């Protein structure tokens, strides 16, 4: 074969389940941009017509019909170009997750996914049927017959085939069979959820495959917070023969992010002997990029007008506040003032003209003022330190800041109940009750502000608290989204120091010098989270060993001893406490507001970690820790 040059492009798309208008516009814009650049093959992400996150709707026959109609529309936009995109098909009673190839306005065929994603946040076998390797069939829709299966396609003499997302993550991946069939190009349409440092794994997967299978590899992921919880980083990768050719900027605020490269295909490719891997990932930088994009997409897709936050001046609520500020800063930086204002969907023309006129350094502060309202809700147990921390942080980022006390309301409830039960409530007897009433009394006022602003109420729970239920149901768990519920407390604390130092959020200097405390007991008791629970580092370690590494309670206990974390008595006490609180509080995790998936795992029962609400609570296992 003579050398053939193809211009390959991948486009990340910010799609939304069932938002046909948005999804088709993004697809059309990507195709138009590709045609302008004389692209030969354009790859779009997995299930990008419907959105990847349609969940049980994939089982609805009408959705497949509707989607096929949209696919026929897309086909008409593909003049002089080959476009490959993810779409589901209903054949008989089976639903398939496929990649469709359209060449010059004709559908050439469909490749169906062979390995369904079924771990962590993925539940594909609930909806889709896997396709058997090496099999090709035909099906008919609206009088037209199409091939479907393990197809090898050809573009200007270059043979190409697919791996659809998870296909590439399995040992017996389709690429193993592609090489002997002369395939020189593999396309991978993906919906690969974001997790810290995961880009490194994807990079290895793609570049190593291009080396091992002596081919070019084109990869395109979804982009943005698609359906509420999972975030996609919009990664586009083009590699060939063990060398990376293109990799885009991840987690952008764009709707369409297209990358292209001219790639040469010949008979005797030079294969790189060594692969150049990515440098270590800066997870703090990644986290803030993901969090701010996730918040922005959630806000605009839910048509909310900003955020409301009960700001205690502690670490968790401070992180939520700076995340919104950073959302605005990054959004304006990437989209421009007018682009950001338009995309936020909450400002009128007058607002837009105003924001366009004011000096740049003022814009972000003023936009934060319009998008974030905070309230400090003190009690007799609150300290000046946390008040100063909250006020200074809100002021430094330009958020609206209210401060009031809730002592009257707390006293009102306590005296009502004391009258009803005819006894006085005391800290000795009623500790948790007296703590919880304070947390609960903070909920109605802050919900009122959220309703007035038509804004999202940010719930501030982190993953460490969620593990042990260290939060008051309908109190500090109240909220419409829980953006940091996937992040552990130790990570949050170092992250806030990084945000101050690296991103210049000087308003964080106060919280960065405070010990985490709920401030629910009288100040004479100097309550701290770690005194109530255990050191967060240990809590996080137990949680990870127990539910990520899937060890038994005894194995967790032995691990704590083996790595010198604690003595026998202390390790036993912490393991017992962790499992007891974990079990008792599953119901709380079921009731958390929707949260973002940010780390490589989380405790969200809807997406990652299923656990029974009622159980024996590891009673026997905890009794035999030392046997
Ligand atoms: N399986 C189950 N299904 C449904 N409900 C269940 C249940 N098990 C217990 N319950 C119910 O749960 C209720 C207790 O839950 P809840 O009222 O939330 O209270 P609870 O979990 O008992 O206590 C809250 C804890 O969170 C701490 N906290 C609160 C607020 C803020 C912070 C902070 O870090 O700032 C910390 C506080 O110090 C205390 O240790 C009980 O009424 C019980 O009946
Ligand atoms: N004085 C307060 N004013 C406003 N909100 C408060 C106050 N105290 C607690 N809250 C709300 O309750 C939430 C839970 O408190 P918690 O102590 O767990 O978090 P934090 O104060 O943000 O961080 P830290 O645990 O590091 O002190 C806070 O994030 C905040 O939303
Ligand atoms: N959509 C998929 O098949 C995703 C699964 C794959 N393991 C990933 O996380 O990237």
TrEMBL record:
Keywords: ATP-binding, Ligase, NAD, Nucleotide-binding
Domain of life: Bacteria
The keyword Nucleotide-binding is assigned to this record: yes
Pfam families with a match to the protein in the record: CN_hydrolase, NAD_synthase
EC number(s) reported in the record: 6.3.5.1
GO MF annotation, one: NAD+ synthase activity
Amino-acid positions noted as binding L-glutamine in the UniProt annotation, renumbered to this chain: 192, 198
Segments passing through the bilayer: none
Pathway: Cofactor biosynthesis; NAD(+) biosynthesis; NAD(+) from deamido-NAD(+) (L-Gln route): step 1/1
Database matches in PROSITE patterns: CN_HYDROLASE
Active-site residues annotated for this sequence: 46 (proton acceptor), 113 (for glutaminase activity), 165 (nucleophile)
Catalytic activity: deamido-NAD(+) + L-glutamine + ATP + H2O = L-glutamate + AMP + diphosphate + NAD(+) + H(+)
All residue ranges annotated as the CN hydrolase domain in the record: 6-265
Catalytic class of the enzyme: ligase
Annotated ATP binding sites: 460
Gene3D superfamilies for the chain: Carbon-nitrogen hydrolase, HUPs
UniProt xrefs under InterPro entries: C-N_Hydrolase, C-N_Hydrolase_sf, Gln-dep_NAD_synthase, NAD/GMP_synthase, NAD_synthase, Rossmann-like_a/b/a_fold
Record-listed deamido-NAD(+) binding positions: 436, 465, 588
Job of this protein: Catalyzes the ATP-dependent amidation of deamido-NAD to form NAD. Uses L-glutamine as a nitrogen source.
The family this protein is said to belong to: In the C-terminal section; belongs to the NAD synthetase family.
Name of the protein in question: Glutamine-dependent NAD(+) synthetase
Organism listed in the record: Pontibacter ruber
Classification of source organism: Bacteria, Pseudomonadati, Bacteroidota, Cytophagia, Cytophagales
């Amino acid at each position: 074969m003579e050398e053939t040059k193809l211009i390959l492009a991948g486009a990340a798309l910010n799609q939304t389940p069932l938002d046909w208008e948005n999804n088709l516009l993004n697809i059309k814009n990507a195709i138009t941009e590709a045609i302008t650049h004389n692209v030969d093959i354009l790859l779009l992400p997995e299930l990008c017509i419907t959105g990847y996150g349609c969940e049980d709707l994939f089982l609805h026959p009408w959705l497949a019909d509707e989607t096929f109609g949209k696919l026929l529309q897309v086909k008409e936009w593909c003049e002089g170009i080959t476009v490959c995109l993810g779409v589901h098909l209903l054949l008989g009673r089976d639903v398939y997750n496929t990649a469709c190839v359209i060449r010059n306005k004709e559908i050439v065929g469909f490749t169906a996914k062979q390995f369904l994603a079924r771990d962590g946040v993925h539940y594909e076998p609930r909806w889709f049927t896997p396709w058997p390797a090496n099999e090709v069939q035909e099906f008919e829709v609206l009088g037209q017959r199409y091939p479907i299966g393990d197809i090898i396609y050809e573009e200007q003499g270059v043979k190409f085939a697919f791996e659809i997302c998870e296909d590439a993550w399995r040992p017996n991946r389709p690429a193993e069979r592609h090489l002997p069939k002369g395939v020189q190009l593999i396309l991978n349409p993906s919906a690969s959820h974001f997790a810290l440092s995961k880009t490194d794994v994807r990079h290895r997967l793609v570049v190593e495959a291009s080396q091992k299978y002596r081919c070019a590899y084109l990869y395109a992921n979804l982009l943005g917070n698609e359906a509420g919880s999972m975030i996609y980083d919009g990664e586009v990768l083009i590699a060939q023969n063990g060398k990376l050719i293109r990799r885009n900027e991840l987690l952008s605020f764009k709707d369409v992010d297209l990358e292209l490269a001219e790639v040469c295909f010949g008979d005797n490719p030079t294969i790189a002997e060594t692969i150049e891997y990515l440098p270590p990932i800066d997870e703090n930088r990644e986290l803030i990029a993901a969090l701010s994009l996730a918040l922005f997409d959630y806000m605009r897709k839910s048509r909310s007008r900003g955020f409301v936050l009960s700001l205690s001046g502690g670490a968790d609520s401070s992180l939520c506040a700076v995340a919104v500020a950073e959302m605005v800063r990054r959004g304006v930086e990437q989209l421009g003032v007018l682009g950001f204002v338009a995309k936020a969907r909450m400002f009128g023309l007058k607002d837009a003209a105003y924001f366009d006129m004011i000096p740049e350094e003022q814009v972000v502060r003023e936009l934060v003022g319009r998008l974030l309202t905070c309230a400090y809700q003190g009690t007799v147990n609150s300290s000046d330190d946390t008040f100063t921390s909250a006020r200074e942080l809100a002021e430094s980022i330009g958020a609206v800041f209210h401060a009031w006390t809730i002592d009257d309301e707390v006293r009102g409830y306590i005296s009502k109940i004391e009258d009803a039960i005819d006894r006085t409530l005391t800290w000795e007897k009623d500790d948790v009750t007296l703590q919880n009433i304070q947390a609960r009394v903070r909920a109605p006022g802050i919900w009122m502000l959220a309703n007035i602003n038509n804004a999202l109420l940010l719930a501030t729970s982190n993953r460490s608290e969620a593990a042990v239920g260290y939060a008051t149901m309908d109190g500090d768990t109240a909220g419409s989204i829980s953006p940091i519920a996937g992040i552990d407390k130790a990570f949050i604390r170092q992250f806030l120091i990084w945000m101050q130092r690296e991103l210049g959020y000087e308003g964080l200097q106060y919280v960065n010098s405070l010990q985490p405390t709920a401030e629910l007991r009288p100040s004479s008791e100097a309550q701290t989270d770690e005194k109530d629970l255990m050191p967060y580092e240990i809590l996080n370690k137990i949680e990870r060993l127990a539910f990520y590494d899937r060890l038994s309670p005894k194995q967790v206990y032995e691990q704590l001893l083996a790595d010198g974390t604690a003595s026998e008595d202390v390790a036993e006490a912490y393991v017992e406490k962790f499992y007891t609180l974990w079990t008792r509080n599953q119901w709380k995790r079921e009731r958390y507001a929707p949260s973002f998936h940010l780390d490589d795992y989380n405790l969200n029962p809807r997406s990652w970690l299923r656990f029974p609400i009622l159980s024996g609570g590891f009673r026997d296992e905890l009794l035999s820790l030392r046997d």
